[in-house]
């Protein structure tokens, strides 16, 4: 494990941290009676649609 960033903002020690369901944000609660949210993982890219596939077996072959 390597430290890649230091989040500053609380004036007292952090008592609790949790990752929010969006997968990008972390919330923290500290002894200074504040809650903070941190966008630590960036904004997620929109999901790309899956490519269409031919459901027929050998549908891509020309059989004569």
UniProtKB/TrEMBL annotation:
SUPFAM superfamilies (UniProt xref): WD40 repeat-like
Stored PANTHER family: CELL DIVISION CYCLE 20 CDC20 FIZZY -RELATED, FI02843P
Cell division among keywords: yes
Keywords of this entry: Cell cycle, Cell division, Mitosis, Repeat, WD repeat
Region (Disordered): 41-64
MF annotations from Gene Ontology: anaphase-promoting complex binding; ubiquitin ligase activator activity
InterPro entries reported for this sequence: Cdc20/Fizzy, WD40/YVTN_repeat-like_dom_sf, WD40_repeat_CS, WD40_repeat_dom_sf, WD40_rpt
The protein's name in its UniProt record: Cell division cycle, cofactor of APC complex-like
WD repeat start and end residues: 7-40
Role played: Component of the anaphase promoting complex/cyclosome (APC/C), a cell cycle-regulated E3 ubiquitin-protein ligase complex that controls progression through mitosis and the G1 phase of the cell cycle.
GO biological process: anaphase-promoting complex-dependent catabolic process; cell division; positive regulation of anaphase-promoting complex-dependent catabolic process
Species in which this protein is naturally found: Olea europaea subsp. europaea
GO cellular component: anaphase-promoting complex
UniProt superkingdom: Eukaryota
């Amino acid at each position: 494990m390597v430290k890649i960033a230091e989040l500053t903002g609380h004036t007292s020690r952090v008592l609790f941290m949790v990752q929010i369901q969006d997968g990008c944000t972390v919330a923290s609660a500290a002894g200074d009676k504040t809650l903070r949210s941190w966008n630590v993982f960036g904004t997620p890219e929109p999901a790309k649609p899956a490519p269409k596939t031919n459901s027929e077996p050998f549908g891509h072959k020309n059989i004569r």
